[in-house]
Amino acid sequence: MNWVALIIQLISGAVGGNIVGAAAKNLSLGTAGNSIAGIVGGGIGGQILSALVPALGTAAAGGSLDIGSIVGQVAGGGVGGAILMAIIGLIRQAMNK
User: Fold this and answer.
1) Taking 80 as the threshold, does the pLDDT of residue 57 lie above it?
2) Which residue from 5, 27, 34, 67 has the least number of CB within 10 angstroms?
3) Whole-Å CA distances, 77 to 50, 62, 67, 97
4) pTM of the model
5) Which of 28, 51, 52, 32 is nearest to 40 (CA)?
């Protein structure tokens, strides 16, 4: 496991979660909640993307973080964080009704 790739995924997940929280106010969990959900989703989403697209995982695992693998890690982490934050927001919204 490459720690730099994981850190990139976690940070981009937090950013993705906060972007969705800001865009969809009814799903927002607050800044801390959006960040935590985004971090978890970013880690999971980034790992899934690395498993599905082996070129991203092998480039990052080999220690050569080129621009393509960095963009892939940011995309996987950001999208994963955004999706998990939205899912948690929808569940929370449904439970409040």
Assistant:
1) no
2) 67
3) 10, 19, 15, 31
4) 0.85
5) 32
